[in-house]
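Re-run with default settings, no changes from the original entry. Doing this only to confirm the output is reproducible before filing.
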Amino acid sequence: MTPQIQEFLDRIELIERAIEQEAKIRRQQWQTHFDEHKLRFEKEVLAQQRRFKAGLWAYVLTAQWRHVLCVPFIYPVLVPMLLLDVFVSVYQWVCFPLCGIPRVQRSDFWVFDRSHLAYLNGLEKINCAYCAYGNGLIAYCREIFGLTEQYWCPIKHSRRVLQAHPYYHGFVDYGDAENYLSELTRLRSELKAMHKQSVKTEDGL
């Protein structure tokens, strides 16, 4: 990785932190609080939210026909998502320790907090949970395969990759045969260091 690319990545990290800080301010504006890792709203805010809640039957009976038509095609996708979740999880639990790659924590990628919103009815909350699970699963898999790629084939592509995983920009340049093996060793060593650190953290050291 060149110093210029590292500088750009550092800038991106600063911007992401600034975005999160702004989001935190917005959450405070809506009087959202975290009490012992649990989300809660002020009672006045909950009462205000309930004023905008659509009743379940009214929500179903007034649904647009195109939304109803989508239902048989949306929810069956949950089956392959669950299978993907199981297979990818087993893969990383078995293979990552063998290769010295740090395991990915599933809990870091799923956030199911929309059920606390009083202006959503039961069906809307189910739909929100579906989307949260799907997007969390993709992010979880992306992290696992990003680490896998760093171990087995850390080479950049010849053209731009949209929304590349966070490890991609540290890969070896496309066509750089001279430095590939040395960089491969370095990148694998980075993963082993991350693995050792994660084990220490789990052991409470």
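Helices lie at 3-29, 43-50, 56-61, 65-74, 78-99, 122-152, 177-203. The radius of gyration is 22 Å.
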